[in-house]
Amino acid sequence: MPLAFSTLGCPGDSLAQVIATAHAAGAAGLEIRVADGEFAYPGMDVAARTAVVRQLNDAGITVLSVASYVKICEPLDVRAPGLRKCDGGTLTSSHAAAAGAAATDGTADGTPDGTAVAAATGATAPDAAGAAGGADGTGAAPTVGDDHDELGANDPVLGDLLAAVELCAELSAGNTPAGTSDTGNPQTGPQLRVFPGAGLEPCDVGAAPSAELAAADRLGAQRLNLAAQRARELGVTILLETHDSHPRACDIVRILAHVDAAAPVKVIWDLMHPWRYDEAPTRTAELLTDSVAYAQYKDGVRNPGTNSVTLTLPGEGELPLLAMRDLVAETLAARGISDPWVCLEWERAWHPELPPVSEALGSLTKALA
């Protein structure tokens, strides 16, 4: 299985340093984190994008994915309340939609996510307040048209998503379609990581989601559907990670149930989050049979009585990494993918006291041997 790693594990490193780390570890791919202060960042100009593509291509490195911090379920009342979509329906926030549901039928996601090195933090994103009226103060919500620029202008989250799709396509330009590479390296098409990011606590295993969570599911799916056309045009697959408000496969599939079947949307299985929220790996694999693109590998020890985890080097924690790897491989093999990526997500950006990513890569290779 080809090895990749997220640049989350080497914050602040130049692209040349990252490439050197990859070559030393035998890694053929990168999950490129897009963040301020990194070699890939939001709003980077054409020259900067071209330079990154050239260096990666010269080094024979595949862009496994471009890791954005777009939160597709982020409530609209956080940044742009009360928007209307082009068919006249209201593009509501989770809070506004939940309030509407309660009135009519009586029914009431890039930071660390529950992991720590020395102690559990338990921090979660704050819930947003209720939705307001139109941006002009009249109560009339602006209309979202069909044009991508107009869509983005009226919904900042959707605007960020569309911009990330464009950036992903450009940064992945050096990837060779599968079966046509003469470098011997595995290849992949452009893939964009996004988070759910509803700012809500996940429901208990087996419990029905709250009205707010259900509304967040629909909002996230709606944004994915609106971005799907542009993603298809550019050959980009949007990857929704098991993370934050939707840490398990059972949470993710609620969003996917509202996504158009033809939309280029798949899933990144972050192995830790479903596990720490008590979803059995076999159940995660079953639910993601048709949608998983690849898995992110990490390890840790669960803090007693909580869902938080103290991170460890791969192979030194409690995650059944070998069994999980086999589940991922079996799931993808059923779809004709015989040699799936193994991608390390090492959270040194959030926990600078962790060992260097090079050490974690070595530990992962040994743990999966």
Automatic annotation (TrEMBL):
Q: Where is this region: Disordered?
A: 127-155
Signal peptide positions on this chain:
none
- Residue ranges of domain Xylose isomerase-like TIM barrel in the record: 195-364
Q: Which InterPro entries match?
A: IolE/XylAMocC-like, Xyl_isomerase-like_sf, Xyl_isomerase-like_TIM-brl
Q: Name one Pfam family in it.
A: AP_endonuc_2
Superkingdom: Bacteria
Which controlled-vocabulary keywords does the entry list? Carbohydrate metabolism
Q: Would you tell me the protein name for this molecule?
A: Xylose isomerase-like TIM barrel domain-containing protein
